Amino acid sequence: QVQLVESGGGVVQPGRSLRLSCEASGFTFSMYAMHWVRQAPGKGLEWVAIISNDGTIKYSADSVKGRFTISRDNSRNTLYLQMNSLRPEDTAVFYCARDNRMGHGYSYGFSNWGQGTLVTVSS
Amino acid sequence: DIQMTQSPSSLSASVGDRVTITCRASQTISNYLSWYQQKPGKAPKLLIYLASSLQSGVPSRFSGSGSGTDFTLTISSLQPEDFATYYCQQTYTTPLFGPGTKVDIK
Fold first, then answer.
1. Coil, strand or helix: which one is A29?
2. For the segment B22-36, what is each residue's pLDDT rounded down to a tens digit?
3. A33 touching B, CB under 8 A?
């Protein structure tokens, strides 16, 4: 079955960096676009970034543009989120999610999610 | 930029009730609209995609409709496990979630 396992969260000071990982299994990772989504404590869902199945196309939310970078290693079935210049308002549970659609094109939603990893930005 | 709204923001209902949640986009998104259910401390679960397609494994009491800018999620007969927060999401442009609708017990 499809499994997504995030890691790399923790407590970090403002201005510092952190890299999240998401290890995928149970499906052909290289066939699907992948996403990062975050949820601040007690708040709603915020899409963060997308990377195409082959890693050639990336988009990110305005709130993280220039600070966060999404990447993937299809040989390791792993998705990454490099987060630089972290701010207190970045404090959230970060989820990786698989797109519901194979290949390129408009997303059909996010069919599978990891359990989330908590990032806390605080001095 | 597209904006997403949901109504109501919360509702109280009883087991067996028919529940309808509305989602509106500020401009047309065709049918690129998904619905998710999220329970406290858990990851969201995809219920409906492309406005009306039921995700595999999701009970048939959940249904979605709409196109363009106005969409609805209907739960035909609310079950105890359905008390949760529901989010719509557009994927016509870079993905954007609605603010959520919390469904709790009356």
1. helix
2. 999 999 999 999 999
3. no
Residues A104-118 have pLDDT tens digits of: 888 899 999 999 999
Question: Which residue in this structure is represented by tokens 């359990």?
Answer: A115
Tell me what pLDDT residue B6 has.
98
- Amino acid at residue number B80: P
For residue A33, the SS3 value is strand
Count of CB atoms situated within 10 Å of the CB of B22: 16
Both ends of chain A: CA-CA distance in Å?
40
Residue B24's pLDDT is 98
Report CB contact under 8 Å: B46, A109.
yes
| Ramachandran sector of residue A8 (left: φ over 0; alpha: ψ -120 to 50; beta: rest) | left
How many whole angstroms separate alpha carbon A21 and alpha carbon A9? 9
Which B residues, 46 through 105, put their C-beta within 8 Å of a C-beta on chain A?
Answer: 46, 49-50, 55, 87, 89, 91-92, 94-100
**Chain B hits for A116, Cβ within 8 Å:** 43
Distance from the B49 Cα atom to the nearest Cα atom in chain A, whole angstroms: 6
